[in-house]
Amino acid sequence: FGWKPLGKEMTITKTRGTSCIASIDGLRPTEIYRRYLKVEPDENFVYNISEFPLGIERQGCLMARVPPRYDEEGSIYFSSDVYEGEKIRLTYAVHDELLRETAEAGLEMWHFAPEAMFLVACGNRTIFLKEKAHLELDSYRSFAKDLICNYGTSEIYCYQGRGGVLNSALVALGLREGEPRMASCCGCPFEKEQPHRVIPLSERMATFLDAVTRELSDSNREMKAMAEEARAASRAKSQFLSNMSHEIRTPINAVLGMDEMILREAKEENIRQYAESIRTAGTTLLSLINDILDFS
């Protein structure tokens, strides 16, 4: 896939059928694109949003959704399925990073030594990569001379219960019979030094966004861990206060009970005054302990 989640998680709050989103977080979907990308629903809508597919995670598999059309009500339509209640986020990609991931996947396929190779590439990747789009195919053509490639708007791929109707993805399928028979002397087609070049501003900004997003994700994980530690400490403190309140209240009640016996049986006035002071102080202390117990 190659795109990474960006920004906050949103919820599909209304759908029409299984291929139309009518609202996201209670807003028109086109308003989401206007808010975060400054994209208006016009004749250039698809080209302006294609670099930022909507990402949906299902069973641990992140897949994209790019709407090829919209309507006057601000709803967006897809060639693949979407469901009410699903969580979605905008995603982004960096050209060189996406091509690097493709090359790594191609290297795995090269080691597999397929006897037949099929590629299904989403047209949205071509829109995103532009003049670099051919490099993805070159990663496989370098060792699969009879490569069969197809372009489309959606890709269908499912493996071990993950996947389904995809979008913005590159599906590579290699087939062989028996064990690989690649010659050991055959050089790796991926060991090529990248030429030096002037990097366009858009790529530099995308790389910067990638680095900042990773750092922010790491910071969020650290803050979440710190918050959980603080909650655990708070729970431990409350439990301690609760237990101590019970432990302290028991002997105080015993003291007050003994003091009540002194008040009933003592005849000397000074002893009774001492006992009254004990009862006043003990009652006040017990009231404080009860308040702590109620609070904890």
What does this structure look like?
The chain is an alpha+beta fold. Helix content is 47%, strand content 22%. The chain is built from seven helices and twelve strands. It has helices spanning 29-37, 45-49, 95-112, 123-129, 133-141, 201-265, 269-295, and strands at 4-15, 20-24, 54-58, 61-65, 69-70, 76-77, 87-92, 116-122, 148-152, 155-159, 162-166, 170-175. A seven-stranded antiparallel beta sheet has the order 4-3-7-1-2-6-5, sandwiched between helices. Strands 9-8-12 form a three-stranded mixed beta sheet. A two-stranded antiparallel ribbon has the order 10-11. Strand 1 (4-15) and strand 2 (20-24) form a beta hairpin. Helix 3 (95-112) runs parallel beside helix 5 (133-141) and helix 6 packs antiparallel against helix 7. The longest helix is centred in the last third of the chain and has 65 residues, at 201-265.
Low-confidence stretches: none
Strands ordered across the widest β-sheet: 4-3-7-1-2-6-5
Mean pLDDT: 87
What is the SS-derived class? alpha+beta
If you compute it from the alpha carbons, what radius of gyration comes out, rounded to the nearest whole angstrom? 33 Å
- Give the overall silhouette: elongated
Give the SSE order as H and E letters. EEHHEEEEEHEHHEEEEHH
Helix content: 40-55%
The number of helices is 7
Strand content: 15-25%
Distance separating the two termini:
50 Å
Number of strands: 12
**How would a crystallographer describe the biggest sheet?**
7 strands, antiparallel
Using brief descriptors, characterize the structure shown.
22% strand, seven-stranded antiparallel sheet, 7 helices, 296 residues, 47% helix, alpha+beta, elongated
